């Protein structure tokens, strides 16, 4: 008998696992975590790399064919390169992608290329070193910017993820688009989301419509591109430019109807929606000795209760209080 697939009650098949390997990060971006007072998981609370591999194998057996490695910052996790090398051999897994803050070393870039990983998202919210410092609370712009071009020169497909926020980086929107004139970059502008671990979030002033209108005011002619199925971004390019840009309505959540993602946090929490509560904790069940078959059934059960969209998922979280930090959720 064939293994069942991850299909929710709305007929959406989940084929894309966002796998967080750590909640730790060497940056302190304001929209992701507080500057101080962050309670990181202890080492014993984190899934071991062997446990992460075992769970990834179970997900691939349920039809997952793409895994995105997230954090925190994945490359602060000791042993990450051997883990990715082992992960790349999983049957049924067609693609591994990585989201990083761009503090990769030259040797890590070389290792990723050898493993066969070719797509990397770099979180970069400003092209100005002072604004970068204020946003990340770290003085690392020069090294991150250099890393982007080293990745391009090494043959990687690079996306730049920029969270847009009033009084933070509006001045950077057009310079980011201009960066696509010469370079084969894919810039993605994201609405701000309520995942900094606090309770002070306000509805973002810069929605996807405002971002688009702002760009259109500088480029009267924009070419709309055909979006891949289940894409979270609406994509464009300036005619004649080498790269592209897209806008992700991450707070407006207009893409929920085709979402094919499921999320596993570094401490084992399984989420069927970024905006919803954890459905179960697979770490705890593994450590109780649950068999692969029982873990499969637990995952299938979680998917069967998946909400229609992010707003419905968020409604079920209201009683819990503040959203968790993005470094805990894994993005």
Automatic annotation (TrEMBL):
The keyword Nucleotide-binding applies. One of its GO terms (molecular function) is GTP binding. InterPro entries: Aldolase_TIM (IPR013785), Elp3/MiaA/NifB-like_rSAM (IPR006638), MoaA (IPR013483), MoaA-like (IPR040064), MoaA_NifB_PqqE_Fe-S-bd_CS (IPR000385), MoaA_twitch (IPR010505), MoCo_biosynth_MoaA/MoaC (IPR050105), rSAM (IPR007197). Pfam families: Mob_synth_C, Radical_SAM. GO terms for biological process: Mo-molybdopterin cofactor biosynthetic process. Its cofactor is [4Fe-4S] cluster. The keyword 4Fe-4S applies. It is an enzyme of class 4 (lyase). It comes from the Bacteria. Its EC number is 4.1.99.22. This is GTP 3',8-cyclase. The lineage of its organism: Bacteria, Pseudomonadati, Bacteroidota, Cytophagia, Cytophagales.
């Amino acid at each position: 008998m064939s293994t069942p697939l991850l299909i929710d009650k709305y007929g959406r098949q989940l084929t894309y696992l966002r796998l967080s390997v750590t909640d730790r990060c060497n940056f302190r971006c304001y929209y992701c975590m507080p500057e101080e007072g962050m309670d990181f998981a202890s080492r014993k609370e984190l899934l071991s790399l062997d446990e992460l591999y075992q769970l990834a194998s179970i997900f691939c057996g349920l039809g997952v064919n793409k895994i995105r490695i997230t954090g925190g910052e994945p490359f602060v996790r000791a042993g990450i390169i051997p883990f990715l090398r082992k992960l790349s051999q999983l049957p049924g897994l067609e693609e591994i992608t990585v989201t990083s803050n761009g503090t990769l070393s030259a040797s890590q870039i070389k290792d990723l290329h050898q493993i066969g990983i070719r797509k990397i998202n770099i979180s970069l919210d400003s092209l100005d070193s002072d604004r970068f410092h204020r946003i990340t609370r770290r003085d690392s712009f020069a090294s991150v910017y250099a890393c982007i071009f080293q990745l391009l020169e090494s043959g990687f497909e690079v996306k730049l993820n920029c969270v847009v926020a009033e009084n933070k980086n509006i001045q950077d929107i057009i310079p980011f688009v201009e960066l696509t004139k010469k370079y084969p970059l894919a810039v993605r502008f994201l609405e701000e989301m309520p995942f900094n671990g606090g309770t002070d979030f306000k509805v973002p002033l810069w929605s996807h419509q405002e971002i688009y209108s702002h760009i259109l005011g500088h480029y009267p002619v924009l070419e709309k591109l055909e979006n891949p199925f289940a894409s979270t971004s609406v994509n464009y390019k300036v005619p004649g430019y080498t790269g592209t840009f897209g806008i992700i309505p991450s707070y407006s959540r207009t893409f929920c109807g085709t979402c094919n993602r499921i999320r596993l946090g570094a401490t084992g929490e399984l989420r069927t929606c970024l905006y919803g509560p954890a459905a179960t904790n697979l770490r705890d069940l593994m450590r109780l000795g649950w068999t692969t078959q029982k873990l499969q059934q637990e995952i299938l059960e979680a998917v069967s209760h998946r909400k229609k969209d992010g707003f419905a998922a968020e409604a079920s979280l209201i009683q819990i209080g503040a959203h968790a930090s993005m470094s805990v959720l894994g993005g």
